[in-house]
């Protein structure tokens, strides 16, 4: 038991001697190399992993839950709970085989009944789940045996395998959830994942203990503590002071500074997130020459250098390098003279500038507002004057759904699967709420590709579509976004190209 | 409890009801004016327009505003504050889970502001007329002009990183066991469960956020106490006390301070209300899991049920503080009791 002695009182007054150790540091020292503390920028929306789509929460969910299909670091789909899956030629069904050695944290075996419950029964029962929208076309899931079954779809679902590895698709235990109810499950969640959640304080701290019976091999680190630190400066301070072993999403300049600090390593990793200008097909930007002039005037390399230390890769299509929709060797040139020519063809010049409004968020992704201001300067040089409208992230969806976004909007599009349907497909599908481009061209081609079950044909179609979208100015891809990460130099982890930082891939060197 | 105090309490409690109705109506209407579609926010980004329209009807957003308010108010007086759009949990649960942390932080901050403000006020009073007073005056203006989030960042870097003296993340250190929830107040619960190690750790975690929060509340207390003391020292009874040979220290403590403290007390009530507002940013910076932290999440996600409930909770807290201050005022001032 601690008593109020002189030393404690001095510490309480904030004038303790320099050797006064912090509680966290003391515990870390005691715990040795068996634990890792991570400073993470956000909490999970709730501990029902099917409930809300939240990209930042995926690495936290993946500690406790497993997905039917996994992804390796280069995002190739790999077996996880499912050892095999096969999409029918018509895309209307997907048969699967499950591992037979997986148990939930309470010891109950994971079976095809749990898969059916997660992706079908919960949705039919009216649970308020975001996955209800991703899996709305599931008409049934037949359970053939405890380890096999078939998804049935009402319309072709060519990206069903990708969605089995995407947001919200985590298998939850049917029997346990029915026993404790949804609220009870959120209070005491169990999954099949590599860690068990042992302590949770919303918006503050999550403590995970290693699952000693994990089917995928017992993780190296016994205890993972995640401190939810939303403030960027506080995350920098946490890792600099040693209170955290790893953090992400801090400013590039801080990452570079901390990289020079002894014992710390800073990384700037390109991830499957695309920074782009979403365009409208109508209004001030109905003229193609004007859209292309705007694109040719942008020096993407300079933006990358100025705001991302040069680490963000300039893009010419709305798919980053290494993903299936990327068009190898294709480049849309930075050419201010060409921009001026196109502007002249559209009837504009420096004396008679084209004028339009552009929307941007401020603080939704790193340097968004700064990039928007840089674009304004680049455009001004060729004869385009832009009025900047700063919108809240929540308002962005509101405006886009109502087709009320201005002619151009600076946005960051995240896609952990890397599949082109979730890049170009979603952004240019006129029937989807994400698209600000509602024209038939290339909308009809997008709609066709949404129903194309043949993977090779689908990918080839998207590559052609990506190029066409750029050349007609339906979207202006800017940069492949980056994830900054600072860690203790002797803490190893696996780098995933979609920015996942997974606790079960960590180990002390 | 004496008659005047009971009367005052009754009177104030009666005024609380219409005030809360007004505030709730105002909050409800203002939030509905925001260009945010609560139905769309409650669905995933890939929801179709038809699904959003159906959700709008399910949430009653298609009804006239006053009818929506009536439904919300009716549910609210039965203890149902709705379900969070983002967390999909009962709002009352979320607020009750986070409120104790914020109250604890605000009380600690107010305690610090009071001690610092009163001591500073006394010093200012004693140093009046000299160069020290000018220096202290300038110092208090400087304290007042620096917002709490800047203090928070400064303290975090100085005491947390550079000097490595105090923790600055959350309410407890890694590995420190949380006590069983009895009241929700960490300090009280750790004491009730006899866990002094947790109590000490929680207290240390509260130092930086509460000092950052309280620092800008202290200068007004300091200055009003100084000016009140200067007024009181013009009163006849102070001169008479001096003529009776009573020591300056005794005059201050027994005669002057009690009277000078009354306006200070009123100000402290106001400052306490402001402190609650200040918890938003300070809780974010120190990863403190209180109601301010919840509010920031709610604002980011346009979670209207949380925003209006937290707003109303702030209002209730301010009203309660105001009642407590009024009662204390009455207890400390016999003239008011007689009136």
Automatic annotation (TrEMBL), chain A:
UniProt key word Signal: yes
Transmembrane stretches, start-end: none
Primary localisation category: periplasm
Keyword annotations from UniProtKB, A to Z: Signal
GO cellular component, one term: outer membrane-bounded periplasmic space
MF GO annotations: peptide transmembrane transporter activity
Cellular localisation: Periplasm
Alphabetical list of Pfam families matching this protein: SBP_bac_5
Coiled-coil regions listed in the entry: none
UniProt domain Solute-binding protein family: residue ranges: 77-429
Family: Belongs to the bacterial solute-binding protein 5 family.
Keyword Signal belongs to the record: yes
InterPro entries reported for this sequence: Peptide/Ni-bd, SBP_5, SBP_5_dom, TAT_signal
GO BP terms: peptide transport
Official protein name in the record: ABC transporter substrate-binding protein
TrEMBL record, chain B:
This protein's record includes keyword GTP-binding: no
Source superkingdom: Bacteria
Main location class: membrane
Membrane topology of the entry: Multi-pass membrane protein
PANTHER family: DIPEPTIDE TRANSPORT SYSTEM PERMEASE PROTEIN DPPB-RELATED
Protein family membership: Belongs to the binding-protein-dependent transport system permease family.
Protein name: ABC transporter permease
């Amino acid at each position: 038991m601690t008593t109020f002695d002189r030393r404690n009182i001095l510490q309480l007054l904030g004038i303790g001697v320099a050797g006064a150790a912090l509680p966290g540091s003391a515990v870390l020292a005691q715990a040795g190399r068996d634990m890792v503390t991570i400073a993470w920028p956000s909490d999970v929306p709730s501990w029902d992993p099917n409930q809300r789509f939240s990209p930042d929460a995926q690495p936290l969910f993946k500690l406790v839950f497993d997905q039917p299909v996994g992804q390796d670091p280069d995002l190739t789909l790999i077996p996880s709970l499912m050892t095999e899956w096969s999409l029918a030629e018509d895309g209307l069904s997907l048969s699967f085989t499950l591992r037979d050695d997986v148990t939930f944290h309470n010891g109950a075996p994971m079976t095809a009944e749990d898969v059916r419950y997660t992706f079908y029964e919960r949705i039919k029962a009216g649970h308020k789940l975001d996955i209800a929208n991703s899996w709305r076309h599931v008409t049934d899931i037949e359970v053939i045996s405890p380890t096999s079954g078939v998804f049935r779809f009402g319309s072709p679902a060519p990206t069903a395998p990708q969605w089995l590895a995407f947001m919200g698709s985590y298998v939850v235990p049917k029997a346990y959830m029915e026993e404790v109810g949804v609220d009870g499950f959120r209070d005491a969640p169990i999954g099949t994942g590599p860690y068990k959640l042992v302590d949770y304080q919303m918006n503050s701290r999550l403590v995970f203990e290693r699952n000693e019976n994990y089917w995928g091999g017992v993780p190296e680190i016994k205890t993972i503590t995640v401190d939810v630190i939303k403030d960027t400066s506080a995350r920098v301070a946490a890792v600099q002071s040693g209170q955290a072993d790893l953090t992400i999403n801090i400013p590039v300049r801080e990452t570079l500074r901390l990289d020079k600090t002894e014992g710390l390593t800073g990384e700037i990793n390109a991830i499957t997130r695309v920074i782009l200008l979403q365009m409208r097909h109508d209004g001030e930007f109905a003229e193609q020459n004007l859209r292309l002039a705007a694109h040719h005037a942008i020096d993407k390399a300079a933006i990358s250098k100025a705001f991302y230390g040069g680490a963000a890769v300039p893009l010419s299509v709305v798919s980053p390098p290494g993903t299936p929709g990327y068009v190898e060797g294709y480049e849309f040139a930075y050419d201010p003279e060409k921009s001026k020519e196109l502007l002249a063809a559209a009837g504009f010049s420096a004396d008679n500038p084209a004028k339009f409004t552009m929307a941007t968020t401020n603080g939704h992704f790193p340097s968004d507002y700064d990039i928007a201001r840089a674009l304004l300067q680049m455009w001004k040089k060729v004869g385009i004057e832009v009025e900047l409208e700063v919108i809240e992230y929540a308002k962005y969806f509101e405006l886009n759904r109502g087709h009320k976004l201005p002619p151009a909007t600076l946005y960051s599009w995240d896609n952990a699967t890397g599949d082109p349907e979730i890049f170009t497909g979603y952004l240019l599908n006129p029937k989807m709420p994400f698209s600000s481009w509602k024209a038939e061209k290339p909308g009809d081609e997008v709609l066709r590709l949404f129903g194309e079950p043949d993977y090779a044909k689908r990918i080839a179609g998207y590559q052609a579509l990506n190029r066409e979208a750029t050349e007609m100015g339906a979207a202006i891809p800017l940069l492949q976004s980056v994830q900054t990460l600072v860690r203790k130099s002797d803490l190893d982890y696996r780098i995933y190209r979609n920015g996942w930082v997974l606790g079960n891939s960590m180990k002390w060197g | 409890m004496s008659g005047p105090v009971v009367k005052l309490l009754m009177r104030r409690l009666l005024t609380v009801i219409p005030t809360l109705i007004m505030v709730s109506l105002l909050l409800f209407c203002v939030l509905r004016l925001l260009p945010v579609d609560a139905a769309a926010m409650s669905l995933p980004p890939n929801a179709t327009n038809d699904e959003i329209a159906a959700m709008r009807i399910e949430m009653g957003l298609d009804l006239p505003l006053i009818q929506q308010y009536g439904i919300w108010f009716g549910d609210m007086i039965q203890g149902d504050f709705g379900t969070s759009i983002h967390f999909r949990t009962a709002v009352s649960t979320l607020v009750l889970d986070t409120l104790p942390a914020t109250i604890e932080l605000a009380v600690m901050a107010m305690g610090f502001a009071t001690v610092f403000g009163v001591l500073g006020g006394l010093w200012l009073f004693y140093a009046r007329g000299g160069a020290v007073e000018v220096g202290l005056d300038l110092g208090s203006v400087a304290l007042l002009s620096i917002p709490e989030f800047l203090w928070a960042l400064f303290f975090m870097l100085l005491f947390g990183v550079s000097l490595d003296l105090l923790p600055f993340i959350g309410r407890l250190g890694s590995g420190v066991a949380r006590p069983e929830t009895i009241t929700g107040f960490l300090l009280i619960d750790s004491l009730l469960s006899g866990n002094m190690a947790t109590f000490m750790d929680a207290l240390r975690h509260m130092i930086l956020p509460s000092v950052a929060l309280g620092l800008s509340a202290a200068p007004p207390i300091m200055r009003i106490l100084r000016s009140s003391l200067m007024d009181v020292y013009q009163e006849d009874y102070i001169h008479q006390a001096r003529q009776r040979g009573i020591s300056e220290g005794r005059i201050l403590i027994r005669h002057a301070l009690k009277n000078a403290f009354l306006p200070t007390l009123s100000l402290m009530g106001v400052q306490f209300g402001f402190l609650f507002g200040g918890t938003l940013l300070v809780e974010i910076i120190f990863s403190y899991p209180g109601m301010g932290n919840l509010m920031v999440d709610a604002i980011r996600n346009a979670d209207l049920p949380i925003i209006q409930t937290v707003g109303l909770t702030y209002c209730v807290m301010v009203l309660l503080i105001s009642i407590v201050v009024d009662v204390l005022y009455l207890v400390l001032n016999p003239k008011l009791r007689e009136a």
